[in-house]
Each structure stands twice: as C-alpha cells, then as structure tokens.
Amino acid sequence: MAVPETAQAQKPGYLDEEQLISSRPSYAISGSGYRLASVLNSLAGCHLHHPIPLVLKLLLLTVFSGILVAILAQVFSIPSRQEYEQDQLQRKQFYKEIAQMKDTINNLCRPCSWDWTFFQGKCYFFSKSQKSWHDSITACKEEGAELVIVESAEEQSFLQQTSKSKGIMWMGLSDLNKEGTWHWVDGSPLSGSFADYWNKGEPNNVGGEDCAEFKDDGWNDSRCENANFWICKKTAKSCSQN
C-alpha cells in the first residue's frame, strides 16, 4: 500500500533523528542535584546559528571565570606564616618605639606642668571649675601653689587679660581681718600703687564683700562664699643645661 506523501514528510530521517537526540538535554543526577556538565553539554550540542544558546553559554563561561578569579585572589591574599610573623614583629617594634617616645617626652624638663601657663618665671593655673574663695586657697595648696598674688604691672596686665577671656576669677587678696585693710594670702599688705586696679567705685563692701576677684577690666570685692574660677601661682622649675 502506498504511503501518503504527507506521512512521509512527517517521518524524520536519519539526520533529523540525530539532531533531535543531540538537542535533547541529558541530565545526570549526582548527589545533591543535576551535574553542571550536562547543562554545558546540552548547550554545546546546539548549532552555532542559534544565537540564544550561544549567548547563554558565553554568559555562563564569563560568570564561572569571574568566580574562579575571585577565589584565586582570595587564596593569594592570605599571608604566609613568614609574612604573618614579620608583621607581628614590626608591630611590636612600633609599639616599643612609641613607649620610648612617651618616656622621653615625660622626662623632658618643663618649667610648668602641661595644664599650667608660664609667664616671667612663674607658673599659673587657670581653673576650669568654680569654688568659694577659701576652697580656692585649699585647691592651690594641694598643687604646691598659692592663690595668686599680683606683684607687678606686667603680671597684672597678663592676669587681667587672661581672666577676662575665661570669666570672673579669685585672687589671693581679702580684708577679712579688718574691713578696708587688704592683705594678700601670704600676709603682705596691698601696696598703694595697686589702688588704680580697682574698678570704678570698688571696693564698696556691699553685703559684706571681703574677697577680691578679677572682673571685667579690673578688681572687684565680692562675697567670699560666691563660687568663682580661681588662679594658682607658683615658681617655675629651672632646667639645668647639659
């Protein structure tokens, strides 16, 4: 019996069967999933004139190449045992040099401590907290100093300008023993040449003001119980020359 031409056209020939077989994806199951090789084999079986499989193949190769490069870079970035030990040795040497530098700085001869100010052979401490006049005297004694005594016009100018930028500050002057008779904390009387340092109208002893302070452009008498900043003074160290 004769086979219709349409049926013969639908029956695949030898080459057609080979193309169908080669284009059929073959998956090999190994352990946890499909093997990657089967996917690449499937892509490799496609003809070059098919653009989509070729693009996917190139894309996969590019991704795999990037992953491989990243892994190699990570491996080569791990320092060797010798490099690690050398790095640790350099760190120890660095910390040792820093410690030696700190010791050298601490042993340098300084006329005044770090938080004190040097002026004409004296060291001055300008407080950052506030106390009463009597507590200020105690705070200075604890530092081996005394509440500041003004001894010259140059010193007065220095103290007045510095205190003006920081706030009202106690000095070591009072008339606690006798009203109107001012003495420094070391017992010495106030010199008459210093009378011009009082602000206009001061001292006025309003409300029992017996202690002197630096205020604005001059001196003012104030209640000793008030909380003010204060200034300590002591002699600077002398550094011997080697």
Give the helices and strands, then pairings.
Blueprint: H1 5-10, H2 14-23, E1 29-30, E2 33-34, H3 36-44, H4 51-77, H5 81-106, E3 117-119, E4 122-126, H6 133-142, E5 146-147, H7 153-166, E6 169-174, E7 183-184, E8 211-215, E9 218-222, E10 229-235
What does this 3D model show about the protein?
This protein has 242 residues and is of the alpha+beta class. The chain has two domains: 11-77, no CATH class; 117-235, Mannose-Binding Protein A, subunit A (Mannose-Binding Protein A, Chain A, Roll), CATH 3.10.100.10. It has helices at residues 5-10, 14-23, 36-44, 51-77, 81-106, 133-142, 153-166; strands at 29-30, 33-34, 117-119, 122-126, 146-147, 169-174, 183-184, 211-215, 218-222, 229-235. The strands form two sheets. Strands 3, 4, 5, 6, 7, 8, 9 and 10 form an eight-stranded mixed β-sheet that branches. A two-stranded antiparallel sheet has the order 1-2. Strand 6 and strand 7 (183-184) form a beta hairpin. The longest helix has 27 residues, at 51-77. Mean pLDDT is 79; it is low at 1-37 and 46-50.
